[in-house]
Design goal:
It contains 19 helices and 19 strands. The protein has 531 residues and is an alpha/beta fold. The site of zinc ion has 6 residues, from loops. Its cofactor is Mg(2+). Pathway: Nucleotide-sugar biosynthesis; UDP-N-acetyl-alpha-D-glucosamine biosynthesis; N-acetyl-alpha-D-glucosamine 1-phosphate from alpha-D-glucosamine 6-phosphate (route I): step 2/2.
Length: 531
């Protein structure tokens, strides 16, 4: 067929470096940008097939999130704006690793296995972050789409969650919003303005937020969005990309892992600050107190604030909807304890990686999910949305129930349900703090984090470690878990686990205990047991 001839011809222009083997990992392919041209072309091909198979628009995002500037990566987005399904991750890995002369064979195998009708139309949305390599790499994706006769729309510079939103809007015929960047700002900012409109006691001080844009795409997009916020949120933007390097000593990952503010930003005591990561799908909050001590409010603190707010509104609205919080093993033990024992909220733990959290959150009427690193969102079931909508429109309910229903409706609209989104999460948190009249210090005192430490250990082959129980226990190598158990017993309120990273060639060690010294010592001892 002519289209396969075109694939062959174009594929030769995007050759694979000999011997290179890459895996579709926790969130797509990610490595040094110089090794990715053929991967991008082939993901353009694969997205076209996925579009034919699902008879829907598929997204391809070119980004390496919080990795350094010289890296890049790519992830595929399924029709409802969710991460691509796991079976297709395997197709992606096979196609990415096929030798040059085998590309057509692998492609045809996928077509056969998935029974794809090649005369079906295909549509692919493409987006990219601000890395200097992203322009040519996203062009390689577009080349892949056109080689198989697919249609593409190049959104250019967008955040990862914006592209997820576009794909969802397109495939739901605009029911989720308009599939444009302008439509995105309109939807989320209008909901934010509605939510904050009756918080008249809010001072200018409370409307002010200090933001670290990680020198990435999030900074650019916040600038674009600002006028839609009508001064209801006044953002002073640092690390806007004009001077510093992407993710270099700044951004959500740096702040979370280093447990300190971005370098070079002047923060006044008590000032509310937040950091985005390089593609704006993660956010963490923080402040320094009058003694100069740094306080981090991470994904767990956000999940707690959001779920508390939603639970209170559901009670006020008299709606019997099942709410749960989904976390990973990295969630601070104090957050889980507070949610289960004080808030009486159901907590579920899944493997690391947002796709796992997203799927579990879908099992509930209201599923709040967050990784400790600040990636998360809230999912509302269709039935929950309908009940909230009905109540908001009902003329026979008392004022209290009605008010709660209206707040819930606007809360749904301020949330990007397709994926964790730094911009949408920021608007949600800002709205909750405004409605509750709460300062960042008050939010911080809801519970106190257990001191914790994360370490990375380089080993010959990290895959010798196999885990179970949502990665909280090691099954192999023999004796490792027993050694960890014995170390944990030496400390108070202690917990520790190890797992191979899905995005880096390291084993990650996590430990928490009653003091920072104990957490550090335990993490160190466990990392020695890993060798
Ligand atoms: P790995 O490298 O598998 O630990 C990291 C993060 C995940 C997730 C992915 C994708 C930690 C401990 N792990 O995964 O939460 O965000 O990257 O970016 O933060
Ligand atoms: Zn990211």
């Amino acid at each position: 067929m002519a289209q396969f001839q075109e694939v062959l011809k174009q594929s030769a222009l995007h050759p694979k470096p000999a011997g290179l083997v890459l895996q579709y990992g926790t969130s797509g392919f990610r490595t040094n940008a110089k090794q990715l041209d053929h991967i991008m072309f082939r993901m353009g091909l694969l997205a076209t097939l996925r579009s034919k198979k699902t008879k829907a628009t598929i997204g391809v995002m070119v980004t390496a999130s919080h990795n350094p500037e010289e890296d890049n990566g790519v992830k595929l987005i399924d029709p409802m704006g969710e991460m691509v399904t796991q079976d297709w991750e395997e197709h992606a890995t096979q196609l990415a690793n096929a030798d040059q002369e085998d590309v057509l064979t692998v492609l045809k195998n996928i077509i056969e296995k998935e029974a794809i009708n090649m005369s079906q139309e295909a549509n692919v949305f493409v987006g990219k972050d601000t890395r200097s390599s992203s322009a040519s790499l996203s062009q390689a994706v577009l080349d892949g789409v056109s080689a198989l006769g697919g249609h593409s729309k190049d959104y250019g510079l967008v955040t990862t969650p914006q592209l997820h939103y576009m794909v969802c809007c397109q495939n739901t015929q605009g029911k989720y919003g308009e599939a444009t960047v302008e439509g995105y700002y309109t939807k989320f900012c209008q909901a934010f303005i509605q939510l904050t409109k009756n918080t008249s006691n809010r001072t200018d001080d409370q409307k002010h937020l200090c933001l670290d844009g990680a020198n990435g795409i999030g900074a650019l997009k916040v600038r674009e969005m600002e006028s839609h916020l009508k001064k209801e949120l006044q953002i002073s933007l640092n690390n806007d990309g004009s001077k510093g390097r992407l993710n270099h000593q700044c951004g959500a990952d740096y702040v979370k892992v280093q447990q300190k503010p971005p370098t070079g930003i002047k923060i006044n005591p008590g000032e509310r600050c937040c950091s985005f990561d390089g593609d704006a799908d993660r956010i963490v909050y923080y402040y320094t107190d009058s003694e100069g001590t740094f306080h981090l409010l991470d994904g767990d603190k956000m999940a707690t604030l959001i779920s508390t707010f939603l639970k209170e509104l559901l009670t006020q609205a008299g709606l019997d909807l099942k709410i749960a919080v989904v976390q990973t093993a990295y969630a601070n033990g104090s957050s889980t304890h507070y949610l289960e024992n004080t808030m009486k909220v159901l907590v579920r733990c899944t493997k690391t990686g947002v796709k796992h959290l997203h799927h579990v959150a879908q099992e509930f009427d209201v599923g709040v999910y967050f990784e400790a690193n600040g990636h998360g969102t809230v999912l509302f079931s269709k039935a929950a949305e309908e009940k909230i909508q009905q109540l908001a429109e009902d003329t026979n309910v008392n004022d209290k129930r009605k008010k709660a229903a209206l707040l819930l409706r606007n809360t749904i609209n301020v949330i990007n349900q397709t994926v964790g989104d730094a911009i949408s999460d920021m608007l949600l948190i800002e709205a909750i703090l405004a409605i509750k009249g709460m300062t960042i210090q008050q939010w911080d005192t809801i519970y106190t984090d257990l001191p914790n430490r994360q370490l990375k250990v380089k080993v010959a082959d990290r895959r010798v470690i196999d885990t179970t129980d949502a990665e909280r226990r090691a099954v192999t190598p023999a004796g490792l878990q027993e050694a960890i158990d014995n170390l944990v017993k030496k400390y108070r309120q202690a917990r520790s686990f190890v797992r191979p990273s899905g995005t880096e060639d390291v084993v990650r060690v996590y430990a928490e205990a009653d003091t920072q010294e104990s957490a550090d010592a335990l993490a160190h001892e466990v990392s020695l047991a890993v060798y």
